[in-house]
């Protein structure tokens, strides 16, 4: 059994909404993440999947304490992230990095890509000698399949796929153990997506990385992930490993996501049934009582609108939050 690197328990991130005017007061709370529990073993890849706005990116940011959790616990390699001092937090940021969805927005347009990649080395006081830093930057560029000669170029001189490679090189500069990949292929052309996925897979094999891979559809994560966690409106709906995933997801929301994954066999693809959900996604400002999915679930009963289902283990770590499996 692999050693647990990250253990998240009952994580909540609520953002207060304030009234305007001189006497600002809190009028509502966006419950972006509301009770997420998840653990990731060293060297493992967990895919975190869900619709836009379900709280998956906020979960990734809160794990790295790039947003402050409202409640809950995040333990990284045995250390409680919420209790870390500034200095200890800096050490965590060396070991845990993030790759962002939009590489154009995450790179400073006024900095050469060499400077962007070497910036974390300066922040963490690694390679204090300038020439060593340049060598390290060249190595990182080569590692992500770019020529070291591009070091002095600027982000606008690259394609989307190349910019994402630069973002990956920057994330890997400090030799992290753990990387949150926040929809790293979503902004790329379909033709480039597979190349970036293959690069992330190769880097994981070579460097022994642990990934939390965030995506809005299952097709993006199913090949890369050892386990998949499906998230809906701030909560985990299902967690399944590869074999459980292949045997079929159980939660009605996860089932509907799975039915949208393209099948390579054209005959099967033509004949399979897609589950189309009706109804709007409820707002995290005012989530419905009971099961948060009950407003769209084809199997919802009265109990579902009153009683919140808890995440239950169906065996072998396959967890589902649905009254159908009580
Ligand atoms: Fe559907 Fe009820 Fe299960 Fe929620 S608990 S997913 S509403 S059947």
Question: What can you see in these coordinates?
Answer:
The chain is an alpha/beta fold and about 325 residues long. It has one domain (about 5-325): Rossmann fold (3-Layer(aba) Sandwich). About 35% of the residues lie in helices and about 25% in strands. The chain contains 12 helices and 12 strands. It has helices at about 55-65, 85-95, 105, 115-125, 130-145, 160-170, 190-205, 220, 240-245, 250-260, 265-270, 300-305; strands at about 5-20, 25-40, 45-50, 70-75, 80, 95-100, 180, 210-215, 225-230, 235-240, 310-315, 320. β7, α7 (about 190-205) and β8 (about 210-215) form a beta-alpha-beta unit. α5 (about 130-145) packs across α6. About 40% of the residues are buried. Iron/sulfur cluster binds near residues 251, 294, 300 and 324. Iron/sulfur cluster binds near residues 294, 297, 299, 309 and 324.
- What CATH architecture do you see? 3-Layer(aba) Sandwich
How much strand? 15-25%
Strands side by side in the biggest sheet: 6-7-8-3-9-10-12-11
Largest sheet: 8 strands, mixed
Structural category is alpha/beta
Instruction: List the secondary-structure elements in sequence, H or E.
Output: EEEHEEHEHHHHEHEHEEHHHHEE
- Parts with pLDDT < 50 across at least 5 consecutive residues: none
* Share in helix: 25-40%
Q: What is the CATH topology?
A: Rossmann fold
Number of domains: 1
Question: What is the CATH top level name?
Answer: Alpha Beta
Per CATH, the superfamily is P-loop containing nucleotide triphosphate hydrolases
Terminal CA distance reads 28 Å
**Residue-averaged pLDDT:** 93
């Amino acid at each position: 059994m692999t050693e647990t690197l990250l253990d998240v328990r009952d994580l909540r991130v609520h953002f207060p909404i304030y009234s305007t005017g001189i006497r600002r007061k809190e009028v509502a709370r966006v419950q972006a993440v509301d009770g997420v529990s998840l653990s990731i073993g060293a060297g493992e890849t967990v895919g975190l999947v869900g619709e836009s706005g379900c709280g998956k990116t906020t979960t990734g940011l809160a794990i790295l304490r790039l947003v402050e959790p409202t409640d809950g616990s995040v333990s990284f390699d045995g250390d409680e992230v919420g209790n870390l001092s500034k200095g200890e937090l800096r050490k965590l940021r060396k070991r845990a990095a993030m790759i962002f969805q939009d590489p154009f927005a995450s790179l400073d347009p006024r900095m050469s890509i060499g400077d962007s990649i070497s910036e974390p080395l300066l922040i963490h006081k690694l390679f204090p000698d300038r020439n060593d830093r340049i060598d390290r930057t060249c190595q990182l560029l080569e590692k992500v399949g770019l020529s070291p000669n591009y070091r002095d170029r600027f982000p606008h001189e690259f394609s989307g796929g190349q910019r994402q490679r630069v973002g990956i090189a920057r994330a890997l500069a400090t030799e992290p153990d753990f990387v949150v990949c926040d929809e790293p292929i979503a902004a790329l052309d379909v033709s480039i997506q597979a190349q970036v996925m293959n690069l992330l897979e190769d880097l994981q094999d070579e460097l022994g990385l642990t990934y939390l891979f965030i995506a809005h559809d299952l097709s993006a994560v199913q090949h890369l992930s050892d386990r998949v966690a499906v998230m809906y409106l701030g909560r985990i709906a299902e967690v399944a490993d590869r074999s459980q995933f292949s045997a079929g997801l159980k939660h009605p929301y996860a089932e509907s996501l799975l039915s949208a994954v393209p099948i390579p066999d054209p005959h099967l693809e033509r004949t399979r049934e897609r589950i189309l959900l009706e109804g709007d996604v409820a707002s995290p400002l005012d989530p419905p009582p009971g099961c948060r999915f009950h407003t769209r679930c084809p199997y919802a009963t009265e109990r579902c609108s009153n009683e919140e289902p808890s995440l239950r283990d169906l065996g072998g770590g396959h967890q589902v939050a649905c009254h159908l499996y009580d």
